[in-house]
Amino acid sequence: MTDSLRGKTVVITGASSGIGEHTARVLARRGARVIAVGRNPERTLALEPALGTQPLLADFVRLDEVRRLAAAVLSATDRIDIIVHNAGGFFFAPSLTDDGFERTLQVNYLAPFLLHRLLHERLAASAARVIITSSTTHRMARADTSTRFDVPRPYRMGTTAYAASKLYDLMWARALARRTPDTGMTAVAVHPGNVRTAINSNGPRFIDWLYSGPVGRPFTIDAAANNGHYVDRHEVNGRMSPPALDAGLVEQLWSHTEMTLGLAPLG
Prior knowledge:
The model is unreliable at 193-236 (pLDDT under 50). By secondary structure, the chain is an alpha/beta fold. It is 41% helix and 11% strand. Strand 1, helix 1 and strand 2 (33-38) form a beta-alpha-beta unit. It contains ten helices and seven strands.
């Protein structure tokens, strides 16, 4: 097995099971120093023997835990070569978090966005590869940048909020890509395929993509050709819904998210 990742530091969220766990184990075997992040203490901490590094705990349903996580990551490493924003959830019943946001939108979009922004300077200094997990369900959603990220209507057993969160993830990747050329950072959104995970047990499709695609060879791809792309399974130019292609909507969402989270504008 190639050791092309030897000496590189990778942060992976949602690593306690499913895609995240498999990704963490594979990249560690390939020589990367993997900082795994998970919500479940028992499953997440059980990764330490395989990774050789101490995993970190955070529940994205609480934004204060995201802020503590960012501080812990910055303390643990002086560079981040790859970050995989994989944490996510699907909730059938509507509810608000203690932060006042709809739970799916917070866990799948707002919390990862906040984590990324808190790590952005370190990522930019490392010319990092940023991988954001999206889904083809984004095509079911429409961008509503006037939302307060509260419970969408109709909720439809969670599919409305989930689809919206995955559209926002894709739009976030595209907005971020516009802000990265001078840093060498690359941002892509990824739909790994119909993988059985704790959200939907694991299948091989994502691992195949991992070996043959941008994550598996992060320092040999052409950043200009991949920055801002949507990778649908093995296809680098995946089909995106109209809101994700609308530069105005993409920028509105970015600005609205910054304002909602109390972040200073980034470009």
